[in-house]
Design goal:
Structural class: alpha+beta
CATH architecture: Roll
Number of domains: 1
Largest sheet: 6 strands, antiparallel
CATH topology: Ubiquitin Conjugating Enzyme
CATH superfamily: Ubiquitin Conjugating Enzyme
Shape: globular
Strand order of the largest sheet: 1-2-3-4-6-5
Order of helices and strands: HEEEEEEHHEE
Radius of gyration: 15 Å
Distance between the termini: 31 Å
Length: 161
């Protein structure tokens, strides 16, 4: 992240500690490049399927909303019918693909608040992945499993992740 101010450095250090409290420390990887910064977190769904979420941290974080892609296992994910999740879709809760990966919607950027944490962003990513796994099992739209506030529903009941 170019030209970090002191407040951003402190914030990212706090974010690192928070991520390590909420996710396995050895499953978190930070990358600081001149043009971008991101953190990758390996997560597991309740069915034991593993994914890596990449959170791109904007230069003016926390003032701007980070973007999130499903980095692993395959880049662009496929729907149950085999079509790619690469274009923006409200019903699938995805944005246009980024860097060749499916970009998921986790917070609306127009109402992003700087007090949201990267751990919250990753947790919303896990909720989306749980809904995606249910979509793959049933063929039902992701929207069926996600409410507007990104709560995973299983048989109409919220599931804690």
């Amino acid at each position: 992240m170019p030209h970090l101010c002191f407040a951003q450095t402190i914030r990212l250090e706090n974010e690192r500690r928070d991520l390590e409290r909420n996710f396995q420390r050895d499953k978190i990887w930070w990358t600081f490049l001149t043009e971008e910064t991101y953190v990758e977190v390996e997560v597991s769904c309740t069915n034991e399927k593993k994914y890596v979420l990449r959170v791109y941290i904007p230069n003016d974080f926390p003032n701007s909303c980070p973007s999130v892609v499903v980095f692993s296992p395959n880049g662009i994910l496929r729907r149950a019918n085999g079509s790619f999740l690469r274009n923006a879709s409200r019903s699938d809760h995805v944005l246009p693909s980024k860097d060749g990966y499916t970009q998921i919607c986790h917070f609306r950027s127009d109402i992003w608040m700087g007090d949201a944490t990267l751990s919250q962003v990753v947790k919303k990513g896990v909720i989306w992945l749980e809904a995606y796994e249910l979509h793959l099992q049933t063929g039902d739209p992701l929207d069926k499993f996600l409410q507007a506030e990104e709560t995973l529903l299983v048989d109409g009941v919220p599931l804690e992740v």
